[in-house]
Amino acid sequence: MAAVSSSVASPSLRLSHTASNRRSLRRGVALRSPSLASDFRLSVHVGESVRRGLRVSANSAQVMEQPRREVGPKVSTVVDVDLGNRSYPIYIGSGLLEEHDLLQRHVHGKRVLVVTNTTVAPLYLDKVVTALTSGNSGVSVESVILPDGEKYKEMGTLMKVFDKAIESRFDRRCTFVALGGGVIGDMCGFAAAAFLRGVNFIQIPTTLMAQVDSSVGGKTGINHPLGKNLIGAFYQPQCVLIDTDTLNTLPERELASGVAEVIKYGLIRDAEFFEWQEKNMQALLARDPSALAYAIKHSCENKAEVVSLDEKESGLRATLNLGHTFGHAIETGLGYGEWLHGEAVAAGMVMAVDLSYRLGWIDDSLVKRVLTILQQARLPTAPPDSITVEMFKSTMAVDKKVADGLLRLILLKGPLGNCVFTGDYDRKALDETLQSFCKS
């Protein structure tokens, strides 16, 4: 697909990616992100950054377009997350768990701990152990199998990872491997960040949600009863290995949940990608291999660009959370795990779009397109009846995007592919949105 003109705006940073600029990014043209001013007033355009010789972020391309890299024949795409000496590749392809060298090259030391869950372990644990040890007898592998579900993304379950690592006498030269969806990736990454103050880790995401979003960018952590993902760390992996064949065993509900994050990228910064989704949603839901590979590649490219500009969410990266403030309130209010993350985000995006429309920032045609594509993806377009206005407000008050008591939101503004991260919006409009979606 040709690169597309899109923009992302926030009080901290506004980026306008022209078609030529995005092609340059994907070919590895380097531009440096400006410092993110604390008052979030800075406005910088990518084209201006190029002229000033500044360095912007991630490059991603088909393997043939990359600087020469030895990869297995099954790797169809490599997307690079450009973070200086902490940069790492995202490998995307079918059958990558059979490419043993691909995984082994990113292992540090001779001890490996694979963190997985009761659902994924019977499917892929043996295959990953084989990939780690085949022709590599000096490596020993231990595993810890956690219960499956968002409700287990908490401190007690996390301690099981530490227990295993300490009992097995792992040292700082070990490697943790996250094998599973977003919950496993978040917990394994947080454990790796904290164990002995930081050890090597690798992401092997097995759900679409993890492949297009949570495994990329180094956000790790656990939930607290009062709010989602409030305890964690930014900690980057050595690599992300996406074997698209793992999606063959993914339940339909989990697949749709991942599609919600794919839709998000189109709405906030990639209009042409959104238009592709509108034409290819049925192919995605039918697990067409080429459609899935395309969606994963473009999602990872979009996230890698943003993460490379704003690793620790000073401003720009927050735009990746469209609908998440509302969605996290749904997850917390219902009880973790009742709705999948993508289901809650889908309803949250509809609420964010509704607020954007009430503010006069988008037209009704975009509202209708968002509703239509989420319905096609078989995702919720409203919160459950049990979530009240007060539940939304109390949970949103402790959201990570609150600064100095001010709730900042990601909202759409302008044509498709544009958004803002802002606290400058009419609170009455927010109240109207909440009241229109809640019965009490």
Automatic annotation (TrEMBL):
The keyword Amino-acid biosynthesis applies. GO terms for biological process: amino acid biosynthetic process; aromatic amino acid family biosynthetic process; chorismate biosynthetic process. Its EC number is 4.2.3.4. InterPro entries: Dehydroquinate_synthase (IPR050071), DHQ_synth_AroB (IPR016037), DHQS/DOIS_N (IPR030960), DHQS_C (IPR056179). Pfam families: DHQ_synthase (PF01761), DHQS_C (PF24621). Keywords: Amino-acid biosynthesis, Aromatic amino acid biosynthesis, Lyase, Metal-binding, NAD. Residues 144-256 form the 3-dehydroquinate synthase N-terminal domain. Coiled coil: none annotated. It catalyses: 7-phospho-2-dehydro-3-deoxy-D-arabino-heptonate = 3-dehydroquinate + phosphate. Residues 258-402 form the 3-dehydroquinate synthase C-terminal domain. Its cofactor is NAD(+); a divalent metal cation. Pathway: Metabolic intermediate biosynthesis; chorismate biosynthesis; chorismate from D-erythrose 4-phosphate and phosphoenolpyruvate: step 2/7. It is found in: Plastid, Chloroplast. One of its GO terms (molecular function) is metal ion binding. SUPFAM superfamilies: Dehydroquinate synthase-like. It comes from the Eukaryota. One of its GO terms (cellular component) is chloroplast. Belongs to the sugar phosphate cyclases superfamily. Dehydroquinate synthase family. Catalyzes the second step in the shikimate pathway. NCBIfam families: aroB. This is 3-dehydroquinate synthase, chloroplastic. It comes from Aristolochia fimbriata (White veined hardy Dutchman's pipe vine).
